[in-house]
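Example 3.2
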Amino acid sequence: MELLGEAWTIMLETKEVYDQELREVRATLAKVAWFSSSVDGAAFKCDRCGSELVEQIDPENESQDYIELRCRTCGANPNVSDLIERLLDERYGGEAYMRSKDTGEDGPIYQCPACARQTLIEGEQHCANCNESLDYESECVRCGESISVQDYIDGLDSGLCSYCAYVSDKVMHED
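Structure, written as tokens:
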């Protein structure tokens, strides 16, 4: 600190100004009722400049459907769907990579059939981006095992897990 002298004071003042700006932009997103508990607007970063200073233009808006954003750093108007998708990738991308690498399975992020974004999160019953509900049986009626989100997306939502659906299909096609 002593070596920096006056520069240290200027650096602290700059940090204080940035922290105040960050509190202000996060306050504009605090009232939003997000479709997913995995989404937190406070973690958004501008897709043009990478700044965390992304604010909601109408700070009184509480609906995710009507959010319009602006970056205080570069003036860009990021698309909320893009930021949600990127945020979820940052949060779950490592797990998705490891799961795919270790087991060859998909998850915990899936592509939503309604909005085509990677915003369906395992364990949640609707899309984090468009709020499309997952309307499927979560337990196999034959064996009681859980039915995965991927089975639902692949059209295997007849109440059977992928293994029971395979066995049933095999029995049906035996000569």
